[in-house]
Description:
Blueprint: E1 3-8, E2 11-17, H1 41-62, E3 66-72, H2 79-96, E4 101-108, E5 114-121, E6 130-132, E7 135-138, H3 142-145, H4 147-152, E8 155-161, H5 167-180, E9 191-193, E10 201-204, H6 206-214, E11 222-225, H7 230-236, E12 239-245
Antiparallel strand pairs: 1-2, 1-10, 2-12, 3-5, 3-8, 4-5, 4-9, 6-7, 11-12
Amino acid sequence: MPFIYRNYGKIREISEIEKVPDKVRVYHPREKRVVYGPRRLDNIRRTRQICVRRLSAALEEFGRPLLLTLTFQGDASDAARANDALRRLQVRLPAKYPDAHSLFVIELSPRGRIHFHGLVFNVPLHLGDTRDGRRVITRGTERTDRILAGLWGEGFVDATQTDGSRKLAYYISKYITKGAGEPLFNAMRLLRISNGFPKEIVIRGSMAETLARRYEKMRPVSVWNNDKWEISKKWFGKMTKKTYDLENP
């Protein structure tokens, strides 16, 4: 059976599939329907996977990021405005810090106010607070200099230093599931990634099979199959995915 090998950070993911998907997909015209409706469960799961994989790769390549929360001053219920504001920030960041890369997810507060959570790499860490849980140990220079708030230009920025652990990828990705159920976000991307952000390494074919054999004697941290995912079965047939953690072999 064919193999797909993925490498992101310290994670190695090996999928054994029943069939190789066709490279050319034929799209048939469909009847008119509502353009923006509730997201499918498989799309939400896939978006979370992309978030975890790309953040894991970035944490391995860049090290410790700042954890940012972006909030709006004034009206914070306009999804189109929020989308444009975040896009402008992701353009301004590398203009100020040429090596900066960022990934943000959107959230709706219980009061119906839009805000963003994200990780920003290759910016000065002294901008962020250091915390022990919710307790602030030392205050970052962003509190007085307001550099990131100036780049944001829409309100307030809370910046916190992180330890650079892989748990951050899972922490950020949880907001994707949370935001996927909000009708306000149906026409928006749940995940916004800056240009040049690190990607996972994907290998297929005989090389993937050779790499898969190297991990046969290792114990995977998780084993997943697509028995309950009909759309996945349509393209790959039966599929088994094993995940290996080189940090905790």
